[in-house]
Amino acid sequence: MTDLLTKIADRTAHIGVIGQGYVGLPLALVFHEAGFIVTGFDVDPAKVQALSRGESYIKHIGSDRVATAVKAGRFDATTDFDRLRDCDAIIICVPTPLGRHREPDLSYVHGTADEIAKRLRRGQLVVLESTTYPGTTDEEVLPRLEASGLHCPGDFLLAFSPEREDPGNARFSTKTIPKVVGGVNPPSTEVAVALYSAAVDTVVPVSSSRVAESSKLLENVYRSINIALVNELKVTFDRMGIDVWEVIEAAKTKPFGFTPFYPGPGLGGHCIPLDPFYLSWKAAEHGVWTRFIELAGEVNTSMPRFVVGKVAAALNEEGKSVKGSRVLVLGLSYKENIDDDRESPSYEIIELLHESGAHVDYCDPYFPVARPGRKHDVGLRSVPCTAEAFAGYDALVVSTAHNEFKNPTLYGGVGLVVDTRNIVRPSVGGPRRVVKA
Ligand SMILES: NC(=O)c1ccc[n+]([C@@H]2O[C@H](COP(=O)([O-])OP(=O)(O)OC[C@H]3O[C@@H](n4cnc5c(N)ncnc54)[C@H](O)[C@@H]3O)[C@@H](O)[C@H]2O)c1
C-alpha cells in the first residue's frame, strides 16, 4: 500500500482503464495529462487501432488530445488483457445496460472482474466506475477478485467511484467535476482517494463503496423523476392551453428552492433511462418498492407516443392523415450537439410514425447513417440539413436541439413543425406553423 501511494505521489504509477468509451477514454486522458503512464484496454480492436493512430472516435473528445497523449509515449491502447499485470491501478469503465426485462445486466462487469482476477497481483488497486446498484463492488466484484487467492485489503485494494461525465458540457470536464470515492474498506478508500486526487480537482471520500454507488443512483433518479414531472406537466398544461416552457421560464426566476428541468420527447442516453432500474431491482430484493422510480419511468417512456399523437393531430388539422404523409425527424442524438444516440427516443418516434403509415426520414449532422442499436434498426440515412430538403415534407418533428436546427432560414419552405425542444418559432421566412409537443 505504501508502495502504491509513493508511486501515485511521484506519478510513476501505471494506470489501466478498461473500456475506452464515453467514460473510459476521457478518464484515461485525464490521468495521462496528470503525468501518469496510462494504458487503455478495450475488446473492440477498431477503437484500439484508432487510439493507437492518435485518433478519437468521440466527437467532443478532440483527436488532438489523443494524438498528444500517444506522442508523449505515456499512453497506449490494447486488446491484450495480459498487460493488466503491468498496471498498478485498474479502473473499470465497461457498460452496465439493462436486460430484456429491465433487469441489471452485469455480464460486462463480471467478465472484466474475471479477466482481472486471472492477472491480479499483490499491491494493485482496482476501481469500478460503471454505474450500478449498491452492493455490486463488494458482493459481485470482490469475490471474483478474491477467487484469485489474493485478499483485500491485505493483498489488493478495491473501491467504487461513480463517473459523472456530461458529454458536450463545456463548463465541466472530467478533471473539474468532483469525484466521489468509497472503498470496500478504509485502506482501499485511502489509496483510491490518493489516486483520484492526483488527477482531478476535487475528491469526495465516503465511508463505503455502497454509499458511492448509491450517490450516483440518487443523482440519476433525481433527474429521471424531475424530468418526468415536467413531462407530466407538459401534457397537463397542453390540455389546458398553457405553454409549459413559458411556465418554467417564469418559475425559474425564483432565486431559491427551484431547479428548472425541461420536457422533451422522452429519455435517452446510457444513464437516466437505465440506472434508476438498477436501484428498483435491488430494492425488490429487500422487499421495497421504488414507486417514484417506476412512475417516472412510465411517464418518460410514454413521451414518444405523446409526440406522435401531436403530429397526428396537427396533420389532421391540415386535412392530412399520418398515413401517406412525409415526416422528417430532426435529430437522432439523445441530447443536443453530441454524437450519442443510445436509448434515443427519436428511434421510437420514427418507428411509431412508420407503423402509422408515414413516410419517415431523419436529419442529423452527427449521424450520416443510422446505426443499428440494441433495440432499434431503422435502416435510414440522414437527409441533408438544408431548406430545400426540409421543404419536401408535410411535417418536421424536432427531437434534438442541435445548434444546426436553430437556423430559422432552414424552415422557410416548411408548413408544419412539431417541436419537442422549443427551438423553432413561426416567423416570416420561417415555418408557417409550430406546434409544441
Ligand atoms: N456516457 C455517460 O455519459 C456516462 C456517464 C456516467 C456514467 N456512465 C457509466 O459508465 C459506464 C460506461 O459507459 P460508457 O458511456 O463509457 O459506455 P461505452 O459503451 O461508451 O463504452 C464502454 C466501452 O467498453 C468496451 N467494452 C465492453 N466490454 C468490455 C470488456 N469486457 N472489456 C473491455 N472493454 C469492454 C466497449 O467496447 C466500449 O468501448 C456505464 O456503466 C455507464 O452507465 C456513463
Overview of the molecule:
It is a single chain. The strands form 2 sheets. The chain has an 8-stranded mixed β-sheet, with helices on both faces. Strands 10-9-11-12-13 form a 5-stranded parallel β-sheet, with helices on one face. By secondary structure, it is α/β, with parallel strands linked by helices. Helix content is 37%, strand content 13%. It is built from 14 helices and 13 strands. The protein has helices at residues 2-9, 24-33, 45-52, 63-72, 107-119, 136-146, 186-197, 209-239, 244-251, 275-285, 291-301, 303-317, 345-355, 387-390; strands spanning 14-18, 37-41, 75-78, 89-92, 125-128, 157-160, 179-183, 203-205, 326-330, 359-363, 395-398, 416-419, 433-436. Strand 7, helix 7 (186-197) and strand 8 (203-205) form a beta-alpha-beta unit. The structure holds nicotinamide-adenine-dinucleotide. Residues 18-24, 41-44, 47, 93-96, 108, 111-112, 130-131, 163, 165, 167, 270-271 line the site of nicotinamide-adenine-dinucleotide (NAD). Nicotinamide-adenine-dinucleotide (NAD) is lined by residues 18-24, 41-44, 47, 93-96, 108, 111-112, 130-131, 163, 165, 167, 270-271.
